[in-house]
Amino acid sequence: MTEQEAKDLAEPIIKEIVNCMADRRYDLIPDSIGFQAEGITIEDFKEWAEDYLTDNELSHYDRYGVPIDFQPQYDKSLYHQFWVDFDKSGTSFEACYDLSTDGKLNDLTLITEFVLHEDGIKVYIVDLHVM
Fold first, then answer.
1. How far apart are CA 36 and CA 20, in angstroms?
2. What is the CATH number of the domain that holds 59?
């Protein structure tokens, strides 16, 4: 699988999760998306996401694709809000999306893992990581 194929596969799923967060409709995150850590529920995820907003005095998360004002250049390449990173075995990849509020990065990254199986792909939410 190429990087572009991974992005094409992951983007609609990331978009769905981010838009559910923006709409505060965590219950609409598909049941087919699991959590990497055992015992984590959608309610736990909702609590973490909402607590982050409260703790940082933010009113909301932007929907997927809202333009952001952060465009530095790193090593002659432009910053990307959405990216994928393959593991060395080639059996999975992470898809990450830097969340924003009002077009500004809010220092929180949604990290997901896509595990490739013979019979399909399993998607896991790994973390809401503070940058």
1. 19
2. 3.10.450
Task: Give the 3-state secondary structure of residue 4.
Answer: helix
The per-residue pLDDT for range 6-53, each reduced to its tens digit, is 999 999 999 999 999 999 999 999 888 999 888 999 999 999 999 999
In the numeric block, which tokens belong to residue 67?
A: 């333009």
pLDDT score of 100:
96
- Domain that includes residue 38, residue range: 3-65+87-130
Answer whether residue 77 is part of any domain. Answer: no
Helix ranges, the chain (H): 3-22, 42-55
Residue in this structure with the two tokens 């595990």, named with its chain if needed: 115
Cα–Cα dist 34/27, whole Å: 13
